[in-house]
Amino acid sequence: DAGVIQSPRHEVTEMGQEVTLRCKPISGHDYLFWYRQTMMRGLELLIYFNNNVPIDDSGMPEDRFSAKMPNASFSTLKIQPSEPRDSAVYFCASSFPLAGGLRNEQFFGPGTRLTVL
Amino acid sequence: KNQVEQSPQSLIILEGKNCTLQCNYTVSPFSNLRWYKQDTGRGPVSLTIMTFSENTKSNGRYTATLDADTKQSSLHITASQLSDSASYICVVSASSSYKLIFGSGTRLLVRP
User: Fold this and answer.
1) Which residue among A8, A16, A82, B62 has its CA within the 20 to 30 Å range from the CA of B108?
2) How far apart (Å, rounded) are the C-alpha atoms in residues A108 and B82?
């Protein structure tokens, strides 16, 4: 398996533009997570899905952010309109279902570095 | 409030030397603690995962310890290599939840 795949790896856009980040989780993983990482705040969970259904979106900063998972192999995170303070690295991660050992290890993608000018 | 604190913020050591990174947490109820390594420009990769009953876990030259009573963990790196240069992030999971609480990380630089 190629691991979690994210695209694009880098995105530079101007304030006000729409940005769409894409993620393909590891095949067979039922959970998908979107994170944002900045120097100031570290890694923050934005939203996560189970079986394509959003479970917790309390980390989504504003209505400008939205995420979808139309099927088990694809998810998008959209920012519309984008602002300079959205500049960060956005990671997607996926995981097996919780097991008896409660290990729920999450496998991270390489991230998308977003710069909003 | 659930929090994970790491120290030091950054560390520079010479190749071949050992080092220990610290993590204190106030997450309750505790489920498991993991250490991630994040190379520059890449996503975090899990090194070790420990539950309440585990005191130590090794992964090659990396050894993690956990003291659930004092809510402290450490990551010991033996015979450091240049490739160990990275950020090391302590992450705690509360009560079987998928929500992870991340520390701010320790940035390690190994010099030749």
Assistant:
1) A8
2) 23
